[in-house]
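Entry 14. Structure prediction run on the chain below.
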Amino acid sequence: MKRISLFALILSSAWALSSCGDGHSTTTKDSTGTEVTDSKAVADSTNKETKPVDKESADFSVKAADIGFTEVAMGKLAQDKASQQRVKDFGNLLITDHTKAGDELKAIADRKGITLPTAFSPEHQSAMEKLNDKKGLDWDKAFIDHMIDGHKSAIDDFDKASKNLEDADIKAFATNTLPTLKAHLDSAEAIKDYLKNVKTHK
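Output returned:
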């Protein structure tokens, strides 16, 4: 029951945005086999139909929003599941920084008519569910490993966007967000080193 209520809380943190499909499949099945709407796919489909900005800028905006939702959700999981205070503190940092970045992206999207996802993608939800099966120090280590991999991937995406996007506002958002992502990666790598010797720090 706790697991169900936790994911309900995470999902309720999504921004309230309206979206519609264009006939493409925008549903998937969760880990229980229940069919659910893939909000990221809906956003991609809508932007493809309405073309509010160039395709690369729209695709990046949707991906960035998905990353942001996931990081906020992961931060909330850390608040609930982490056994080490440094991991909990890192989770709080994720919530604060990615909420701020998400609000900035949403403001840009609203001005330009870009449809963003209203929740993280099923792919990221699946990763969260796998983490949710772990406990204690095992959870902390798996979470930090996931954060390191995720931030490396996000930094690559944001770096490319900061150099190549056509839309000036979205390009600037990518550029301005990069330092935060790099700082998060540095923090996660430091925490990983800490967790290797966590018994000596109790």
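The CA atoms of residues 9 and 133 lie 17 Å apart.
Filed with the rest of this week's runs.
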